[in-house]
Write a structure and sequence with these properties.
The protein is α+β, with helices and mostly antiparallel strands. The protein has four helices and 13 strands. Helices cover 20% and strands 40% of the residues. An eight-stranded antiparallel β-sheet has the order 6-7-8-9-13-12-11-10. Strands 1-2-5-4-3 form a five-stranded antiparallel β-sheet.
Length: 210
C-alpha cells in the first residue's frame, strides 16, 4: 500500500485538530482520527494552548478548505483550525500569529444570516456563525495577501494555469465576475485566459453580495 504523510496523532479540539506528520497509511490515519473523536472536553481544552502560544516567527498560516492550518516552518508539522471552532479561540490564535484584527463586528445582511467577522489589513477576513468559525475569505487589497496560500501553493496572484494544476476547477461568469470553484474552495479570477490571476479566495460560509 502506498504510504503517505498523514496523521500520527489527531486531537479534535472543539473543531481544532493538532496534526503531527509522519509515515502512516491512509487507512491507519482514518482509524486514528475515529478513535480520537471521543476525547473528553478537559483534554480538548488543554490541547488548544500550544496553538495560541506558537511563536509567530516559526508559524506559517495556510488556507484550507476545512478552515485554516498553522504550519511549523522548522518541522513541517501542521495544526488545523477547523470550521466549528469557538470564535474566541480562533481570534486568540490569529491575534498571536498576526496581531489584533483591524476590524471586528457583525454583518447583519449576509445571505446566511447575521455573521460575525474579524479582518486584517492584508485582506484576510474570518467569518463566524453563532460564535463558531464558519468561513474565511482573502482579497488582494495588500501585497501581503500573496503570502497566504493553500498547502498546494494557490493564493492571491496565482495564475489560472497554476490553479488548474493544483485543483480540478469549474469556471463560470457570475455577478461577482469570473468565478471558480474547486470543491469547497472558491474564488475569483481576473479573466478567462490561462495567464489571468486569482484575485479572491474563500471557503466555508462567507458574506458576498451577488
Amino acid at each position: 500500500m502506498k504510504r503517505i504523510n498523514a496523521l500520527l496523532i489527531s486531537l479534535c479540539v472543539s473543531g481544532v485538530s493538532l496534526l503531527y506528520l509522519g509515515n502512516v497509511s491512509a487507512k491507519d490515519s482514518a482509524s486514528i482520527t475515529s478513535r480520537n473523536s471521543a476525547l473528553t472536553a478537559p483534554t480538548m481544552t488543554i490541547a488548544l494552548q500550544p496553538i495560541a502560544q506558537a511563536k509567530p516567527s516559526l508559524a506559517v498560516l495556510a488556507l484550507d478548505t476545512q478552515g485554516l492550518r498553522v504550519v511549523n516552518a522548522s518541522t513541517g508539522a501542521t495544526r488545523a483550525i477547523a470550521f466549528g471552532t469557538k470564535e474566541a479561540d480562533v481570534v486568540s490564535i490569529l491575534t498571536n500569529l498576526r496581531g489584533k484584527p483591524r476590524d471586528r463586528g457583525v454583518n447583519q445582511e449576509c445571505g446566511a444570516g447575521p455573521l460575525g467577522f474579524a479582518s486584517w489589513t492584508d485582506g484576510l477576513s474570518l467569518w463566524f456563525n453563532q460564535g463558531r468559525f464558519a468561513g474565511w475569505s482573502v482579497d488582494g487589497r495588500s501585497k501581503a495577501a500573496n503570502k497566504l496560500t493553500t498547502i498546494s501553493g494557490v493564493g492571491i496572484g496565482s495564475t489560472r494555469s497554476q490553479l488548474n494544476k493544483a485543483y480540478t476547477t469549474k469556471v463560470s461568469q457570475s455577478t461577482l465576475g469570473t468565478e471558480f470553484s474547486a470543491g469547497s474552495l472558491g474564488g475569483l479570477l481576473s479573466g478567462s485566459k490561462p495567464s489571468d490571476r486569482v484575485t479572491s479566495l474563500w471557503s466555508g460560509t462567507t458574506c458576498f453580495f451577488r
